[in-house]
Amino acid sequence: MLEELLPSAVPGYAAAPSWLAARRETAPGATAWQLGGLSLAPGIAARSGYNSAPNGSAGSSVLGITPSLLLADPVAGFGAYAEADESAYPQNSAQNVTSAALAVGERVQFPRETLTLSGAFVKSAETGFALNSSAIATPASFTFKDIRARDDITSGCLTISPLFSASFYDFSHLAAQNRQDLRASLRLHYDSGAALSYVAELRGGRSAGADVIQNANNYAALAGLQDKAEGLWTISALAGGAWRAPRVGRGLAAPVLEARLDWLPDQLDELRLNLAREIDDPDRLSAVPYALTEAKFTFVRSGLQNVALKAMADASNAVYLHTPLRETIFTTSAEVKWQMSPALALTGRYAFNDRQSNQLGAANEHVLTLELSWTP
Predict the structure, then answer these.
(1) In CATH, what number is assigned to the domain containing residue 151?
(2) How far apart are CA 21 and CA 323, in angstroms?
(3) Domain count across the chain
(4) What pTM value is reported for the model?
(5) Quick one: pLDDT at residue 26?
């Protein structure tokens, strides 16, 4: 969630040193403001559009504005980002949402070691088109606090990466959703410089919240490889087993999988495919546990005289562990971005969200927006 929200200049929340390669989109020609070694990039985006059924309720036009500020010092390894967002639904004011985000990160590099420390605060709202949110008729506001520490230690071809994170969720009107997640992992990555590299990872976590039935310890052991052809493709896969040990009731063990394909067939096109099978989704908002099966496909075409096209399809299926509830969320979207100048961009977006459930009513929405954004 945070990796999609925050820019890549914030250490710990972007393309951190990892065997899973990631590409970030940047505006062509954008330079920001330079103050000594500090890069300062303010921005503002204004949008207007229509939502046919926000949270499954009555349709409304949509107005929004998002100011932001990014500070980065690449030499010092420092990055900070802040943004606010106001979304208004004039014909359905109960859907109005005010959001904000703040994140800081510091990356310190030693001859054979890289230490990354980061923290984030997010104030937002959960919508009815997220897993385990079918009963939401209006946005459910929450705050999210997160701290992370990572150490990458290199010895020859081997990189050892311990990682610790602590996340705290607070729902102002849904106390049963409040919880804290403590997670730790140890990753071993062997890269001899050949096309194939190898990875093994151990994970452990503790989830505790207001509802004791949902509290559990989580463990996973995975191993995998990466095949990389520079400038052409990256294929990454992790497979193994996971175990969820709840404080109340029986535990659950299951095979898990994470796989990703990044393919660049030419200089203009990029295709990404992500597959995942987990029994404890680390990015979930809901405190209710479920087994998640997810597939996401993204196509990006850029370089057409400052015009970029992006299409995405995402299907997520959840099988809940303590109830007979089954749920599937399907999202598809298309986006056209015109970079009118290095600082000014015009973006048109269309998104379709659909929710299917064996116990709760189905719902879907069409969202169409036009956004004008400015960043120096």
Answers:
(1) 2.40.160
(2) 37
(3) 1
(4) 0.81
(5) 43
